[in-house]
Design a protein that fits this description.
Elements: H1 2-21, E1 29-30, E2 37-38, E3 44-47, E4 55-57, E5 62-71, E6 85-89, E7 94-95, H2 99-109, E8 113-122, E9 127-129, E10 133-138, E11 145-151, E12 161-167, E13 173-178, E14 186-193, E15 196-205, E16 210-215, E17 218-223, E18 235-238, E19 244-256, E20 264-277, E21 282-284, E22 294-301, E23 307-314, H3 316-319, E24 329-336, E25 341-342, E26 347-350, E27 354-360, E28 366-372, E29 385-390, E30 396-397, E31 408-413, E32 419-424, E33 433-438, E34 449-450, H4 458-461, E35 465-472, H5 480-486, E36 492-493
Parallel strand pairs: 1-9, 3-10, 17-36
Antiparallel strand pairs: 2-4, 4-7, 5-6, 5-8, 8-9, 8-10, 11-12, 11-35, 12-13, 14-15, 15-16, 16-17, 18-19, 19-20, 20-21, 22-23, 23-24, 24-25, 24-26, 27-28, 28-29, 29-30, 31-32, 32-33, 33-34
């Protein structure tokens, strides 16, 4: 008898659960357009390990929102069941998924598409069923950690900066650097070497320009400078082995435009490219990358360590005081890690528009870079776009599905070469936000999507730019207090 009662209770509970999951939208109106949601998560490809894509529906005349996400099987969409669906009731127009349910759901959906249906109920009690959209869940995961520079979008407050690290599989953050702990000094980006959390560097401008190296659990304070260099190291990138960095020295100057379409310009009066040996504290130079006739900047190593890619321009535009003629080409020069020597020939790869921030995919096939009409400060150029160069075919992809009418720049690759993250001002033209893009095995970019937040309204109230996003395979082994402590030690010199 007890068994029968238990069985009946279980059956009733199951019936109640199914009833609660069944559609209750009476006389719903079907419309052929998407809801007014932020962020725009319609028809995007997402990694299997991404945090929940929480979003808002921007409509003040609603008293309830329901979302049903259902895994598609082949070309058909099955009925919504507990096994293949998630149902969410929104609160205050914000749709938030349970983190644990979301993780399980994405694992089931790996390699498949998810059909997303949004229902809203007006204050008058009428239901609307919006045009459904899809989430395609790639089997390829993305590197789980993302660091970025949080900074005011204002030239007046250049030192109100934090560098944060976010786990993009959930919503946990930690502070890697804080201007309040660094004597209010300017800080540049956190650069992981080869997406390795145990190899990274942060630039500081407290007393001059210094770099804090984190390598294999040890932190070092470096003054990467020798006699004759125009400045200490500014922009840098690691070699595959981690023994070397390539860097540029930049004597830059801010200027202000008379037109309202551009706010500020930052340009180099002098810049050169070098290599530093981090094991022996020596600096290696070449007359091809360090001379009085050219400006050289943004150097990076190729994944195999055989080349250094960088941007180069004639300094004639600076001498003639004609900034709009300052255009940088993408070039490369051989480098031998074994001997620590530059090659003797510079090859030009692209020179149609002004190039900034080249980044080679870890598989060595593609070079992703920013282009502008002129100059070397794409964040302030609304025409700034991302281009992709196929290093095997020399073909350029202008990435029309990725770019927007506003600035798109500051990018980094995931270690599997299937994802990249970039900064975009597409939402309001002022604040840079981090967007994620899938780059498939056929060399095709997919529609990018905004980094999800626990509360999507975060982007409305965080009056900071998310600059220089960098992906990493793990969490950095230090935080802002470790960075503060290393500043108490003397800096290492180079020769």
């Amino acid at each position: 008898m007890k068994y029968i009662k238990t069985l009946l209770s279980s059956a009733m509970a199951a019936m109640m659960l199914l009833a609660s999951c069944a559609p209750t939208h009476e006389n719903e109106e079907q419309v052929d357009h998407l809801p007014n949601m932020f962020p725009d998560y319609a028809d995007v490809t997402i990694p299997v390990n991404i945090a929940p894509l929480n979003f808002m529906v921007r409509d003040k005349n609603l008293n309830s929102i329901e979302v049903v996400a259902t895994i598609k099987q082949g070309t058909s969409t099955p009925e919504s069941t507990d096994e293949n669906s998630i149902r969410v009731a929104a609160k205050d127009n914000v749709v938030k998924f349970s983190l644990s349910e979301w993780k399980d759901f994405l694992q089931k959906a790996a390699g498949k598409k998810i059909n997303v249906q949004v229902y809203t109920r007006s204050n008058q009690g009428y239901w609307t069923a919006f045009k459904p959209f899809t989430w395609e869940v790639a089997n390829d995961s993305i590197d789980p950690y993302l660091s970025y520079q949080l900074i005011d979008p204002d030239y007046k407050v250049w030192n109100n900066i934090q560098i944060k690290e976010r786990c993009i599989e959930n919503f946990k953050e930690k502070v890697l650097a804080d201007h309040n702990l660094e004597k209010n000094s300017c800080m540049n980006c956190h650069i992981p070497g080869n997406q390795d959390p145990n190899l990274s560097m942060i630039y500081l401008a407290e007393d001059g320009r210094e770099a804090i190296l984190s390598r294999n659990g040890q932190m070092r304070r470096l003054n990467i400078q020798t006699t004759g260099m125009v400045t200490p190291a500014t922009y840098f990138a690691f070699s595959p082995s981690g023994k070397y960095i390539t860097f540029s020295t930049n004597d830059y100057e801010p200027a202000f435009h008379a037109s309202s379409s551009h706010r500020v310009e930052v340009f180099d009066k002098r810049s050169d490219v070098y290599v530093a040996d981090l094991d022996n504290n020596t600096i290696i130079s070449s007359s091809l990358t360090c001379n009085n006739s050219t400006l050289a900047t943004f150097p990076i190593f190729s994944p195999n360590g055989k080349y250094i890619y960088y941007c180069v321009a004639s300094n004639k535009a600076i001498k003639d005081d004609n900034i709009k003629e300052l255009k940088y080409a993408l070039v490369r020069i051989p480098f031998d890690e074994a001997s620590g020597r530059f090659g003797n020939k510079v090859d030009t790869l692209y020179n149609a528009r002004s190039v900034c921030h080249p980044k080679i995919s870890p598989n060595g096939r593609y070079c992703l870079f920013s282009v502008t009409d002129y100059g070397t400060c794409p964040a302030w150029h609304p025409e700034a776009d991302l281009y992709m160069l196929d290093l095997q075919t020399n073909q350029i992809d202008t990435l029309s599905i990725v770019n927007s009418p506003k600035s798109d720049t500051y990018h980094s690759w995931s270690h599997n070469s299937r994802w990249f993250v970039f900064g975009s001002k597409r939402d309001d033209g002022v604040y840079t936000k981090p967007y994620i893009c899938y780059f498939d095995r056929q060399g095709k970019a997919h529609k990018p999507f905004l980094l999800p937040q626990k509360d999507p309204a975060t982007y409305d109230f965080c009056l900071k730019c998310f600059n220089t996003p960098e992906l990493s395979r793990g969490t950095a082994p230090f935080d802002a207090y470790d960075l503060q402590n290393i500043q108490k030690k003397p800096s290492e010199s180079f020769r």
